[in-house]
Write a structure and sequence with these properties.
- The protein is mostly helical.
- It is built from 6 helices and no strands.
- The longest helix is centred in the C-terminal third of the chain and has 18 residues.
- The radius of gyration is 14 Å and the shape is globular.
- The chain starts with a helix and ends in a 14-residue tail after the last helix.
Length: 109
């Protein structure tokens, strides 16, 4: 159900913040599908925002089956990385053929 799918994202966010290794190991064993995709979204956000490991978040985001969610999570994770280390984020985007998000405050310039 939709509630279960949403709950998976929240669960993985919290679990990754408390025990990233266990959360990653458990999620890696789950079947593909909407619950997995949203779980990965939660894990990727936690990796990028709380764990300061956006590269790991991007690696996880690349495993999302839903194309739109995968693109959204990739961009969100890259935006966070751009705040932390713009050169590394831009290099990763370039190497992986992904358009890097514009820095905040540069719209229309």
């Amino acid at each position: 159900s939709e509630g279960k799918v949403d709950a998976m994202g929240h669960l993985m966010w919290n679990w990754t913040n408390n025990d990233p290794a266990a959360a990653s190991a458990w999620l890696a064993e789950q079947p593909a599908g909407a619950s997995y995709d949203h779980g990965v979204g939660g894990l990727a956000k936690a990796a990028a925002y709380s764990q300061n490991d956006p590269e790991a978040g991007l690696a996880w985001a690349s495993t999302i089956g839903n194309e739109e969610l995968r693109a959204n999570m990739t961009q969100a994770t890259l935006r966070q990385w751009m705040r932390q280390d713009p050169n590394a984020a831009a290099a990763w985007a370039n190497e992986n053929g992904v358009e890097a998000p514009a820095p905040r405050g540069s719209a229309g310039k």
